[in-house]
Design brief:
By secondary structure, the protein is α+β, with helices and mostly antiparallel strands. It is 19% helix and 37% strand. The protein is globular, with a radius of gyration of 16 Å.
Amino acid sequence: MPADGFCYTLTRTPDAPVKTVWQAWTIAGRYGRWAGAEPGSVEMDVRPGGAWKATMVTPDGSRFPLTGSYLDVVTDRRLVVGMDVPGRPGPAVMTVELDARDGDRTEIVACRAPRRWGWSAGQRGEELNGPRVRV
């Protein structure tokens, strides 16, 4: 979680062991299948400072390229991923944390911190509630 304590989180607990979930996030072919990437477009150098890229495909068939880097990697536990955003001073940052649960289940907590995009508190509110309109 970011220093200011603010992030959007998504939590899921699939019926899969940590090793399998880690591989789904860190092996190009596996990531591409579940994330909706164009086949063969995903490249990953999963280490701090390593680069990644993928071409995502939307349900209507549109394609858009994404690039970024790994800011922190703790095998089977945590990924901090930066995504390049045109026009922003720094990368969009998402942290993915994995935690083993009862049986062969894994809790996945993904956190995206809007302040890391260079947004102000007011802009965070716009993202949550839509733009502010003065009447």
